[in-house]
Structures are given as structure tokens and as C-alpha cells.
Amino acid sequence: MFKWAQQTLANVAGTQEPIYGPTAVRSVAEEAKTVPYTELTRDDLKWAAMDSTCVETQTFYFMTDAGNLAFVQVIYSNVAGIRTTCQFNAKVFSFDKSKPQLWSTTQLSNTEFSEDKTAFYATDCAVELSEDGTTYTIKSMVDQQAIVNLTVKRIAPGFQAGKTGKTLFGTDLENPWGTMRHAFWPRCTAEGAIMTKEGPIDFKGKCFFSHALQGMKPHHAAAKWTFCDFQGPTYSAILMQYITPPSYGSTVVNVGVIAKDGEILFGGCEGDAVHVKTLADVDNEWPAPTDIKFNWSGKTKDGKAVTAVLEGPLGDYLDRIDVMAEVPGFVKKFVAGAVGTKPYIYQYAQKKMSLNLKIGDEEITEEGYLFGYLFSW
């Protein structure tokens, strides 16, 4: 194989990584064995803005009182310390397959951070954290088709698994060459609007916020993802599962939390996501799940055992995103044929799904709104 083709393949799919094995990854679950989770402070929400290869995101997922579903997102991306780009994305989902999704993605210019790294700025765009660390404001006029003016206020504490929220990668884990970190606001209220060419969309309702850092090539850190954001009248349930590539032993990492107004009920790394039933996508043969099951387990602060289950049919996906859409066709075909890579993101939602909780001897069932996505390289 030509060296340029090897490098292209490595850049896209990470296939040149040696097999380091599971000893070259330290899951955040190791921290969570002694400290299941930590409540976030304002300092925990600072941008890392690394000078080396990374992808860092702040994403706000909205479920409105009117039943709309959307997210807005800032992406900071650095390639080998050579090129840094920042992007603002906004998406409003359509549950009617005959209507297009509202999708806006814009490369930002003149980007900078506040002195304390808690706020992000660019021309016609700002994402700011309040002084008391409880509220974000998101404003963007970078795309006149989706003018964003939103406010998100947390109504439960912020969360990270373990002490730091970090999974570490490297053959010397005291000096890791890569990291993965997630910090969440699992339960928030939202207000404001996105102005579209059809008029304003009111975003009064619930929100989930995620600050994620992949401090290495993203495709080297995780090969598969499954994500759940459940928002009910009383409870919010979040689960992020990722599986490392074989180079790191196909290690499974689960990060989950269940919260209600004013408190985290429990959280940590005890849980999983199960694709109960799958069906091959007719276009690409990817085994897209039709039925899903999310499990959480842990203990409350007062020591009560807690379990939670969310399961059922997903229905048809809302959207399928070809991650390699911008990659030249011959590279895409080569990667898929040579290593079986099928990099698509499937996004799902169910407006009525039941979360079954057991807190000590008490059993609770609550119906709510599920948004989820599934992704595999």
C-alpha cells in the first residue's frame, strides 16, 4: 500500500494504531470505584482549548414544552497543533420525514475565550457562563437561517464520573498521551428562541448540557458510541457509553447519572446500553438498533440501592449522518471495504418512553421524552 494511502486511512479511521491492549487505557470507572461521581464547580466548566490534537465540544440538547427537539453546539478542533478550527452548529429536528431538518453549520472567525476560559466568543457568536455558574446564554447570528438566542439554567447539580471525569490513554498512564472527559448538566430549564426563515421557534422547556473533551484523535479514543438523554417531569436520566478501538482492548466505558430538581439521585459508571434488536440498514448494511435498553445502578447519598431501566422500541431514526461525507469517495470505499468501517450517526427520539426506577423498596415509573444517538466507525 502506498504510504500516502496508509496515512489517509490512518487519519480517517485510525487503522495504523498498534495493538496496545487494555492496559493502555485507564477507564474513569477506576476512579468511580472509590468516588462514584463529583458535583461540578464553575472551574470544572472551563474550556481546555488544547494546543495539541483534540476535539472539544459544548452541546445543549433541547426538548421544548411544545414537543420540539433541537441542539446547538460549539466545536473546537485542533489537528496536530497545526490548524485550529471552531464551528457553530444548530439543528432543529423534524418528526415529519417529508420535511427537512433545519441544519445550520458555520465555521467561526476571530475566536477567543474569556480570561478564565468559561466563555467562548467569535464574530457574531457567544456562549457565556454566569458568575454564579448556574446559567449559560447562547447567542449566534452567524447564520441568518438560524439566529440563536437561548438561556439554559441548571436545576440539578452538574456531574462528572469519578474525581476528574477522565479516561486516560497511553502506555505510561502517569503520563498519558490522550484523554476522554465528559461533564454534564443533566437537568436544566431553557427559554428563548431560534429565529428561522419560517419564524421563531420557542424553546421554553427542558435541556441537557454536555461538555466533552477528546484529547487525542477522536477515532483512536472511541470506535462506538451510544447516548441516551431522557427528560421526564421529575427525573432526568443520562447515559453515555463508548467502546475503544481494538488498539485499546475494545474497552467499554459507561458514564451515567439520574437527577431530579435540586439533586443528583445517583451517578457513576455502573450501567450499560444494550442494542436488544437490530436491523441492517438497507443502504449501508449497518446494524441499526430497533429496540434499546439502558441500565443504571448505584446508591443514593444515604446508601439506598438504586436501579433504573429504560427500554423499548426506537422507531425509525430521525436522521442518519454520513460522518465521511466530506471524504473523497475512493477513500470512503477503500476504508469500508478494507476494514469494515461504516461511520454513520443515527439520531432517534421517542416522545413517550417509560423510565422504571427502584429506590430501596420504592418503585417509580415515569413517562418522558427520549433523545439518543448511535455511532460506529
TrEMBL record:
Residues 55-214 form the Svf1-like N-terminal domain. GO terms for biological process: response to oxidative stress. The keyword 4Fe-4S does not apply. The keyword Heme does not apply. It is found in: Cytoplasm. PANTHER family: CERAMIDE-BINDING PROTEIN SVF1-RELATED, SVF1-LIKE PROTEIN YDR222W-RELATED. This is Oxidative stress survival, Svf1-like protein. It comes from Bombardia bombarda.
